[in-house]
Amino acid sequence: MDFFSRLPATIRMQILIDLGSPACIRRLIRASPTMLQQHTVDRHIVVQEVLRKLTSLDKTQGLFQDAMALLYLADRNPQHYPTTGERKTPLKPQDYHILSETLPSIEAAPGLQTSII
User: Fold this and answer.
1) For residue 108, is pLDDT > 60?
2) Is residue 46 a contact partner of residue 13, using CB atoms and an 8 Å limit?
3) Please, are residues 114 and 106 in contact by the beta-carbon 8 Å criterion?
4) How far does Cα 39 stand from its chain's mean position?
């Protein structure tokens, strides 16, 4: 029996948020069908909260700017690039989706260890 099925949904969501690392979250949702269902339902909230914690640690906003630059470099569709003078507003819903897909591949890069993400 899945132990997580006995917990309320808010506790399960908080567990996913507190794990923080996409690799840890991935392992948990592979091991627990209940946590997979919770992750499917609350994926955007989990990604939002993990990113909020990450960016709150960055007092100079340098890390945030680097992450946004990486997102733009990974985007192969030129129509998504901002025009001259146009500023991107921080993290729209589609950015959370892109980050949630990009972070696992960044974390899996050889020689790179991330404990915050």
Assistant:
1) no
2) yes
3) yes
4) 12
Q: What is the 3-state secondary structure (H, E, C) of 44-106?
A: HHHHHHHHHHHHHCCCCCHHHHHHHHHHHHHCCCHHHCCCCCCCCCCCCHHHHHHHHHHHHHH
38 alpha carbon, distance to own chain's centre: 15
Distance CA 107, CA 102 (A): 9
Cα distance between residue 11 and residue 73, in whole Å:
36
Mean pLDDT of 18-31: 89
- CA neighbours closer than 13 Å in the CB half-sphere of residue 95: 17
Q: DSSP letter for 111, please.
A: T
**pLDDT at residue 4 greater than cutoff 70:** yes
- Triad 8, 103, 48: Cα angle to 5°: 45
At position 28, the amino acid (one-letter code) is L
**Rg of the chain, C-alpha, whole Å:** 16
Tell me how many degrees the CA angle 48-13-41 measures, rounded to the nearest 5.
75
Span 44-75, pLDDT tens digits:
898 888 888 777 776 766 777 777 777 777 66
